[in-house]
Write a structure and sequence with these properties.
By secondary structure, this protein is mainly alpha-helical. The chain is built from 20 helices and two strands.
Length: about 450
C-alpha cells in the first residue's frame, strides 16, 4: 500500500518549519515517483481513455503533421492495440476528423514530449510518439507539475498567514488524502493535475494583485486563466472565486477600481488571455475550416436535473465517499463564518455553484474515474478550508481529534486508491453492496 511517510518530519520544532517545508514538498513528489510504474514494455501503450485525446495533439503536430489524426488507426488498432484499453477520442465536424478534447494538457506536456522524442531518436525506439520514452517523460512531466503545484499551494496558504507546520500537514493531506495522488501516479495525462496547478498559481497571483495592485500580477492572472481555459474550458468558472481570493469587500472594490487607472494593462491582460485561448481556435480552423467547434456533440449539461446528492454521496462515485477528507475540510467554514463573513459566503457560494454545474453534466459520474475527478482542479480552495480548521482549533483535545481524523482519512484514501488501482473498487459500477464488501479489505489484495 502507498503509505503515509514523513510523520517524523512533523516533529520538527516550530522555528525550523520554514526550512522544513520545501524539502517536505520534494519528499512528497519523490514518494509519488516511488509509487509510479514506469513500464518497460513500450507496446503497452502510453495513455488510457480521455488521456489519449489530451495527449494526441503532440504527436499530431510534431511527428505526423496531421490535425485530422490519420495516424489513429495505425497506433490504436495496430501497433499498440489492446482490446481492454482501446478508446477513440475522435469526432467529426464539417465532415473533418477532430480531437474531442482540448489542447491545454498537451501544451503543459510539450517540453517533456520533446525531451522524450529526442531520447527516443537516440535510443532507437520507434519515434512514433507512443513508445517507452514518450511515456516516461510524460510521467516525469506530471511529477514536475505536482512539484510546481505544491510550491504554489504553499505560497497560497502562506498568504493567509497559516503557520508553516499547518501548511505542511495540509500539503501531506492534499497529496495522500485525495484522489490527486492517483491522478499523478496512474492516469497522469488526464487534465486535472495540470488544471489544479494552473488554478493554484492563478489563486496566488490574484491574491497578490488584490493586495498590492501590481500590474504584473494582473497579466500573470490573465495568462494563467488562459491556460486554465485551454486545459478545461468549464474551469473558466474559477473567476467566480475572485471575491473570496480578494479577501474582503474593500480589497475587492479597490482592486476593481484600480483597473480603471490601468486601462492599457487591462487591455494587455485581456489580449494575453485571448492569445492563449486562440490556440484552440486556430487548431479548429486548420482541421475543420471553422474557428468555433463544439467537439462534445451530443454531450452536455442538464441544468434542470442536477445530481448533487449522487455527485457528493453515492456509492458509485460520491466525492465525500471516496475522498472523505474533503468533507472533513468543510469544518473550516465554521471558523470562516466567525472570522470573515465575506469569505464564508463567497467561498460557500462558489463551491455550491460548481458542484451544481458539475453534477449537471449528462454523465454526472464522469465515466471511468476515481472519486469525482473534476473537483481535483479546485482543491486549492479545499486546502484553504482544511488549513483554516487546523489553525483555528485551539482546544488541545479537539485539535488532537481533528488531526487524528485527518490521518485516519489519509489512510482510508490510500487504501481505496490501492484498491482502485487493482480493480477492487470498480472504475464505474460500484454500489452499496460492493463498497462495503471491499471496504478496507487489504487482506484481499
Amino acid at each position: 500500500m502507498a503509505g503515509f511517510p514523513g510523520y517524523k518530519i512533523l516533529k520538527a520544532k516550530s522555528a525550523s518549519w520554514p526550512a522544513v517545508v520545501p524539502p517536505l514538498i520534494l519528499f512528497l513528489v519523490l514518494w509519488a515517483a516511488i509509487n509510479t510504474s514506469f513500464k518497460k514494455d513500450y507496446k503497452t501503450g502510453i495513455m488510457e481513455a480521455d488521456a489519449k485525446g489530451y495527449y494526441a495533439y503532440l504527436p499530431a503536430v510534431f511527428i505526423y503533421h496531421d490535425l485530422n489524426f490519420g495516424f489513429f488507426n495505425q497506433i490504436e488498432r495496430e501497433t499498440y492495440y489492446n482490446p481492454n484499453l482501446y478508446y477513440t477520442y475522435l469526432r467529426q465536424s464539417n465532415h473533418k476528423i477532430i480531437d474531442k478534447y482540448y489542447v491545454g494538457t498537451a501544451i503543459c506536456l510539450l517540453p517533456f514530449f520533446l525531451a522524450g522524442h529526442a531520447i527516443t531518436l537516440i535510443s532507437g525506439f520507434p519515434a512514433d510518439g507512443y513508445s517507452y520514452y514518450y511515456t516516461m517523460m510524460a510521467h516525469l512531466g506530471a511529477l514536475f507539475y505536482l512539484l510546481l503545484a505544491l510550491y504554489g499551494l504553499r505560497r497560497l496558504l502562506r498568504s493567509y498567514q497559516f503557520d508553516e507546520k499547518n501548511i505542511a500537514i495540509v500539503l501531506i493531506a492534499i497529496v495522500f488524502g485525495t484522489n490527486l495522488f492517483y491522478y499523478v501516479i496512474s492516469e497522469f495525462a488526464m487534465s486535472h493535475l495540470y488544471s489544479f496547478t494552473a488554478i493554484t498559481w492563478m489563486s496566488v497571483s490574484i491574491r497578490k494583485y488584490f493586495s498590492i495592485h501590481k500590474n504584473k500580477y494582473l497579466i500573470y492572472s490573465a495568462l494563467l486563466l488562459g491556460m486554465i481555459t485551454l486545459i478545461r474550458p468549464v474551469n473558466l468558472l474559477v473567476v467566480l472565486a475572485i471575491p473570496f481570493l480578494a479577501g474582503n469587500p474593500e480589497q475587492l472594490l479597490t482592486g476593481i477600481k484600480s483597473l480603471y487607472a490601468k486601462k492599457w494593462h487591462l487591455l494587455i491582460a485581456f489580449a494575453s488571455f485571448l492569445l492563449l485561448v486562440t490556440i484552440q481556435l486556430i487548431i479548429y480552423k486548420i482541421s475543420t475550416g471553422s474557428f468555433i467547434v463544439y467537439s462534445y456533440k451530443e454531450e452536455g449539461f442538464n441544468f434542470m436535473s442536477p445530481q448533487i446528492g449522487n455527485f457528493l454521496f453515492s456509492y458509485r462515485k460520491g466525492m465525500f465517499i471516496y475522498t472523505p477528507l474533503l468533507f472533513l475540510s468543510l469544518t473550516g467554514f465554521k471558523y470562516l463564518f466567525r472570522s470573515n463573513r465575506f469569505q464564508f459566503y463567497s467561498l460557500l457560494g462558489f463551491l455550491i455553484f460548481i458542484v451544481y454545474v458539475f453534477s449537471s453534466w449528462h454523465m454526472w459520474f464522469y465515466g471511468g474515474s476515481f472519486s469525482q475527478r473534476v473537483m481535483i482542479d479546485f482543491y486549492p480552495l479545499f486546502a484553504i478550508l482544511l488549513a483554516t480548521a487546523i489553525q483555528k482549533i485551539r482546544n488541545r483535545k479537539s485539535k488532537i481529534i481533528f488531526l487524528s481524523l485527518t490521518i485516519l482519512l489519509i489512510i482510508v484514501c490510500q487504501i481505496q486508491t490501492y484498491q482502485y488501482r487493482r480493480m477492487q473498487i470498480h472504475w464505474s459500477d460500484m454500489n452499496k453492496e460492493k463498497y462495503w464488501n471491499v471496504f478496507m479489505r487489504i487482506d484481499r489484495l
